[in-house]
């Protein structure tokens, strides 16, 4: 069995002391590949560093909506250089976060659009972060308006209607630890509806730790708990979930 954790932040200080051990546990749990996601210029560069250090780690580069205010022309040019690195497999995470609003909304939208254009220019998929901004996210994705735009709705926790809209755009939905939470009844219903061929699994570690480790630091080994939950919801085996979600991730990220 092989699993792919399609969204991690292993460059974060949470893993500074024991990253090697964390990676060993991931391997033991069947995690074959890991995609480490950039969220600002620093973490984008650090993600690439990790991908150079470990054969099975890939990287994405992008400016998170929280940091959208930092995306000036210089940063955009730097990103345009970084996307050319060999193991960079996507632009992300990018998108809109109207919950925290660490950057003003109009600036978030502008940064989102610019990075969608960057992804299209180099034919890479996008990793989308969308929180309390469903309508604007959809609108901007549609306005980007190219059938070449491919991507992932990261940590999907939206409504069934949103899921259907994202599927119609050709996007994959990535599910994480949240689907294991007791109160995630509606989200599990969404999982039931989405075809397995369009599902990816992720941890978003160190955040969103699945049950029964909720409250502790998350790590890639726990992506297996997400896969198990999907198997349970869909009434299929863990091996099937592992095989198909890995195939999906391989196709989208081209790894
Ligand atoms: Ni993330």
Task: Walk me through the structure.
The protein has 255 residues and is α/β, with parallel strands linked by helices. The chain has one domain (3-253): Metal-dependent hydrolases (TIM Barrel), CATH 3.20.20. It contains 9 helices and 8 strands. It has helices at residues 19-28, 41-53, 73-82, 105-122, 134-144, 160-168, 185-193, 223-234, 238-253, and strands at 3-8, 31-36, 57-61, 88-97, 126-131, 151-153, 172-175, 199-201. It has an 8-stranded parallel β-sheet. Helix 4 (105-122) runs parallel beside helix 5 and helix 8 crosses helix 9. The longest helix is centred in the middle third of the chain and has 18 residues, at 105-122. The chain is globular. 49% of the residues are buried. The mean pLDDT is 97. Bound molecules: nickel (II) ion.
Provide the β-strand percentage band.
Answer: 15-25%
Distance linking N and C termini: 17 Å
As laid out across the biggest beta sheet, the strand order is: 1-2-3-4-5-6-7-8
Order of helices and strands: EHEHEHEHEHEHEHEHH
CATH homologous group name: Metal-dependent hydrolases
Examine the secondary-structure arrangement and name the CATH architecture. Answer: Alpha-Beta Barrel
Largest sheet: 8 strands, parallel
Low-confidence stretches: none
| Count of helix runs | 9
What is the share of helical residues? 40-55%
Number of domains: 1
Mean pLDDT: 97
> What structural category arises from helix and sheet content?
alpha/beta
Q: Per the principal axes of the C-alpha atoms, what is the gross shape?
A: globular
Radius of gyration: 17 Å
Give the C-level CATH assignment: Alpha Beta
Instruction: Tell me how many strands there are.
Output: 8
CATH topology: TIM Barrel
Oligomer: single chain
């Amino acid at each position: 069995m092989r699993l792919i954790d399609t969204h991690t932040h292993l460059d974060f200080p949470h893993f500074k002391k024991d990253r090697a051990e964390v990676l060993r546990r991931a391997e033991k749990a069947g995690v074959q590949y890991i995609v480490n996601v950039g969220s600002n210029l620093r973490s984008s560069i650090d993600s690439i560093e990790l991908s150079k250090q470990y054969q099975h780690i890939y990287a994405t580069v992008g400016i998170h909506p929280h940091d959208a205010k930092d995306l000036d022309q210089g940063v955009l040019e730097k990103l345009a250089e970084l996307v050319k690195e060999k193991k960079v497999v996507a632009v992300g995470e990018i998108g809109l976060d109207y919950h925290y609003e660490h950057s003003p909304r109009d600036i978030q939208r502008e940064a989102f659009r610019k990075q969608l254009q960057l992804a299209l220019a180099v034919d890479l998929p996008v990793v989308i972060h969308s929180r309390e901004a469903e309508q604007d996210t959809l609108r901007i994705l549609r306005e980007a308006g190219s059938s070449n735009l491919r991507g992932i709705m990261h940590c999907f926790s939206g409504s069934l209607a949103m899921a259907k809209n994202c599927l119609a755009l050709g996007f994959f939905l990535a599910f994480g630890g949240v689907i294991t939470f007791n109160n995630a009844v509606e989200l599990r219903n969404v999982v039931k509806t989405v075809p397995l061929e369009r599902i990816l699994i992720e941890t978003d570690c160190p955040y969103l730790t699945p049950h029964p480790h909720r409250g502790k630091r998350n790590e890639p080994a726990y992506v297996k708990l997400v896969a198990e939950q999907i198997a349970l919801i869909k009434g299929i085996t863990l091996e099937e979930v592992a095989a198909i979600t890995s195939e999906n991730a391989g196709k989208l990220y081209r790894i």
